[in-house]
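// run 5 | inverse folding | seed 20
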């Protein structure tokens, strides 16, 4: 039974609250936590709100982007310096949800949701995490794989803004808007002397968490940016994916359409 909502004014206070209350959860926008509260989640005694911790900032310095964990998706969608992310933001839920949902919370969303987490994985983003022992940097990939300690808080994410023409995103949905993912594809494909180098491809709807398509990315290394290379890479996506069946699509269907939507994302078909 929920007995208290703590509203600390600093991240350090928030971490301290979590360390003292073993039955507490962090709440940012509430889109993940409030359904648990309303469902009467067993063992949940208190909430620690980040609303006063000033974690809702966006800083762009050159190519480096830092976004506070409590920044809403709507705020990111209004930032002109992050225009490359706007299609992904607009593919998430409804305007009402985006006004509440935060980028930090997206890291802990279960698939087939969490499309911004897919993007952060493709961008090789890093998270700042506050703990009792201080602040540390952790890759978003590690957080998606292992989570964070119960009394730790993600305070920001940072990444290098992709070069023009190197970022690709596509989300297949049952409806044109406000729908969970069938498959989500985010790819950063930098080019050097007209050949791909340093490719990263992340997938949603292909596992319990967003996954990196390592084999497909490796197949693109040193290749020209063309339909042949895209097709070969698309055929390898399933090697790192684990499509599942839910109310939105079957595992068979997800596996079937994955290379199709990859081709559409990369070639704009």
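// decoded
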């Amino acid at each position: 039974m929920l007995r208290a909502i703590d509203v600390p004014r600093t991240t350090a206070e928030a971490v301290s609250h979590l360390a003292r209350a073993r039955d507490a959860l962090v709440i940012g926008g509430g889109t993940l936590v409030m359904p648990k509260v309303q469902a009467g989640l067993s063992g949940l005694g208190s909430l620690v709100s980040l609303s006063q911790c000033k974690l809702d900032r966006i800083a762009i310095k050159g190519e480096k982007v830092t976004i506070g964990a409590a920044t809403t998706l709507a705020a990111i969608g209004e930032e002109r310096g992050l225009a490359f992310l706007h299609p992904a933001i607009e593919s998430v839920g409804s305007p009402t949800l985006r006004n509440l949902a935060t980028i930090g919370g997206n890291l802990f969303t279960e698939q087939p949701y969490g499309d911004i987490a897919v993007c952060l994985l493709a961008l090789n983003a890093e998270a700042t995490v506050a703990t009792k022992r201080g602040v540390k940097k952790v890759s978003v990939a590690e957080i998606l794989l292992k989570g964070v300690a119960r009394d730790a808080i993600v305070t920001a994410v940072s990444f290098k803004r992709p070069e023009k023409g190197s970022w690709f995103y596509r989300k297949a949905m049952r409806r044109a808007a406000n729908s969970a993912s069938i498959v989500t594809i985010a790819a950063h494909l930098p080019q050097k002397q007209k050949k791909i180098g340093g490719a990263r491809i992340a997938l949603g709807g292909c596992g319990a968490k967003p996954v990196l398509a390592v084999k497909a990315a490796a197949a693109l290394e040193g290749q020209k940016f063309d339909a042949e290379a895209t097709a070969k890479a698309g055929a390898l996506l399933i090697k790192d994916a684990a499509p599942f069946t839910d109310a939105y699509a079957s595992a068979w269907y997800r596996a079937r359409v994955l290379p199709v939507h990859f081709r559409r994302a990369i070639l704009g078909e």
